[in-house]
């Protein structure tokens, strides 16, 4: 992971759901890293990001149920990060 860019290759429909969970976890990890670096309280982060403090607490504790991938991406953009998710054929792709 460099900067705010992540590459996700989707090779099957059931894998897509698992990758969405993994992508959320990776984005939350980066968001938490930035909040640590900025030394923001949950209340301050909530104000800056426009996310209710209880949701910030959930993200800080890696409890991501109900936290959308889009919301995490938006929060990272507010903190000056570029977020990019790419979908491309894998080199070992099999046709069904």
Brief description of this entry?
The chain has 96 residues and is mostly helical.
- Using the CA coordinates, give the radius of gyration: 15 Å
Structural class: mainly alpha
N-to-C SSE series?
HHHH
The total beta strand count reads: 0
Q: Kindly, what is the distance between the CA atoms of the first and last residues, rounded to a whole number of angstroms?
A: 31 Å
Strand content: under 5%
CATH architectural designation of the domain at 13-78: Orthogonal Bundle
Mean pLDDT metric: 83
Assign a percent range to the helix content.
40-55%
State the fourth-level CATH superfamily of the domain at 13-78: lambda repressor-like DNA-binding domains
Instruction: Give the number of helices.
Output: 4
CATH topology of the domain at 13-78: 434 Repressor (Amino-terminal Domain)
Global morphology:
elongated
Largest beta sheet, briefly?
none
Low-confidence spans: pLDDT under 50, at least 5 residues?
none
Indicate the CATH class of the domain at 13-78.
Mainly Alpha
Describe the structure.
- Helices cover 54% and strands 0% of the residues.
- It has 96 residues and is mainly alpha-helical.
- It has a domain at 13-78: lambda repressor-like DNA-binding domains (434 Repressor (Amino-terminal Domain), Orthogonal Bundle), CATH 1.10.260.40.
